[in-house]
Amino acid sequence: MAIKDKTTIKHYVRRDVLRLGGGVALSAPFVGRAWAQTTEINMLAWYGHGEPDMVGAFEEANNVKFVPKYYAGGDNMLALIAQSPPGTYDIILSDGEFVQQLNAAGYIEELDANDYPFDDMLHEDFTKFPGHWEGDTLYSMILRGGHLGVSYNTTAMSAEEAASYEGFWKPELAGKVGHFDWHLPSLGMMSLKNGNGAGLWDLTDDQWQAVQDVTMTLRPQVGGFFDYGGTFNSLKNGEMLAMCGIGDWITGVLERDGAPVASVIPKEGGIQFTESYCIGKNSSKADLVKSFIQYMMSPEGQVKSAQMLAYPGFCVTKAGRALLQEVDPAEAKRSHQMDGMPNDPIALINEGRIHYRDIPKQQTLEDWNDFWSEYKNA
Amino acid sequence: MNIVNRRLDLYALTWRLPIILWQLVFFVGPVVFMVAMSFFVVRNYRMMEAFEFANWERMLTRGFFWDSYWYTLFVASLSATIAMCVAFPAAWALAFRASESVRRWAIFLLVIPFFTSYLVRTFSWYVILAESGVLNAMLGYIGLGPFRMLNTHFGTIVGYLTLTLPLVVILQTVSMANIDKTLVEAARNLGCKPLATIWRVVLPLSKTGFIVAALFCFILAFGDFVAPFYLGGSQEPTLPILILDTTKSGQQWPRAAVVAIMMMLTLFTIAFTAIALAYRKPKGARA
Hints:
The complex is a heterodimer of chains A (378) and B (287).
Chain A: H1 2-37, E1 39-46, H2 52-62, E2 64-71, H3 74-82, E3 91-95, H4 99-104, H5 124-127, E4 133-134, E5 137-138, E6 141-153, E7 177-180, H6 183-193, H7 205-218, E8 222-226, H8 228-236, E9 242-247, H9 248-256, E10 261-264, E11 270-279, H10 286-297, H11 299-306, H12 318-327, H13 329-334, H14 345-350, E12 354-356, H15 365-377
Parallel strand pairs in A: 1-2, 1-3, 7-8, 7-9, 11-12
Antiparallel strand pairs in A: 3-11, 4-5, 6-9, 6-10, 6-11
Helix pairs in contact in A: 10-11, 11-12
Chain B: H1 2-37, E1 41-43, E2 46-48, H2 54-60, H3 63-97, H4 100-111, H5 118-129, H6 134-141, H7 153-177, H8 181-189, H9 194-205, H10 207-222, H11 226-231, H12 239-248, H13 253-279
Antiparallel strand pairs in B: 1-2
Helix pairs in contact in B: 1-13, 2-13, 3-7, 3-10, 5-7, 7-10, 8-9, 10-13, 12-13
């Protein structure tokens, strides 16, 4: 009986395997065709831009799949493109200041300005954003921005103290001031503190020396240098009470969770990071990418960008901002994206308090980085 | 006889060849490339083949490089010293006091931390060392603190010990467990005090294992990026952090290669010195 049972089981398994194998073999062409219909779009971007909260709806509607490759920092992005064969990336999310270099190196395609809502921009600067155009030819579409200033724990610093970069030197904050570990925003802020205003990136030797000197005086206050995760943690657990080099893109995420942190643009001015889409040179999916950029520039896409889970950014179109106020008034209010609110990002630009992030004009990036290493070692 | 020897050599070579090939492809090759890369130049974020000494000159003449170098050397040595001292009582107890079964279980338990990612273990220290963390809460009950432990040299050392301490305890235990216990007993019977027994009998007999343990600890700490970055707050930056900083700005991989080569030269020098010391015969020993 046992033997019979065993045999039965063996036959059953064999038959089952055959049936299953046959089924798979017969259905394989259809499965293959179904898979083939899903087009992969290779994306090079900062973390978060290729996640489901940003691209999920577009993927579903267009049967595409984004394959993101994340970078940290514009030079990292340039290096990744330089080391890849042409056409590797279909869509590139670039920091605004690096678009010009992408274009100069021939890494991106021309765009047709008529495809995008330039008549709906919240600020005139966004229609002809520096570096995004060469003459009348468009190379990159501005998606969103964010402002960097003084980020602080509201239980340790008052709004008045945070209204100036001087606040970082508050004696009670000794050892409690952190730096986002990237020289560009932190040294840019020190340049603003020194009164360089709109010329914060275009420093003469004397001005550059003065920026280094004032930065060095901050060193005793500094409790650490952090990456994204470290910055996030140290502000959340109260290890750091103020942070230089960041803005609402980090404190906004913590604020949504109820942490007592905030970011303000101090009286000396703030820095804007700008994120823009480009179509990779020789991309075979340029039309699909164009559709995606149009989708992200639509009111719905702009709201998705403002609500992005990884880090928020403000809308650049009027319709996007209006929809955000309608569907998520709490986020619109938290991020000051309402007319008449203090620190409304557009009002700050109009007041001349915001300077677009750039790279050093009279020094090299390596000069700034060398000083940054010296500073960290001091 | 010669034919037999040749056959034996071929047999041995067959078994040795994979590791030789592995080392050639994954160690010698990359090292040669790294040395060559240190003479390359970067233009427009693209590395170009060249033979220029500019990277060496730039890095070795910068004060911050040497600050990082000496700091890394110091903190890795300190961590090796602390690990050796902290591990010794536990290893002693496991080698001389514990039963065979307890020792086996203890070694198994010491291996368990390696089942979890080092990064995860490092991040778990946040909960313990933060100013609002477990340790400060406990100290608060006896009226102490809060103390700042994260983003300090102390944090860095804690991270290094997380990485190295279990390994050091295992290596020390194994080397002391192999000592002929009758020699220790003889020393005690002849009136040798406990500390003198350790110094004059145990340590000389387990010298090789101890030096290897300290060397492993030093090597792991010297090249570690995670502890000084996440628990030390990147201040001061160690050489691995300097490598990251150098590559981040301007994609200066050739300059980062200079730092990496300096690290390797240092490790080779220290490792060969340590191994020579470990296998050096004591004066008066018979050949």
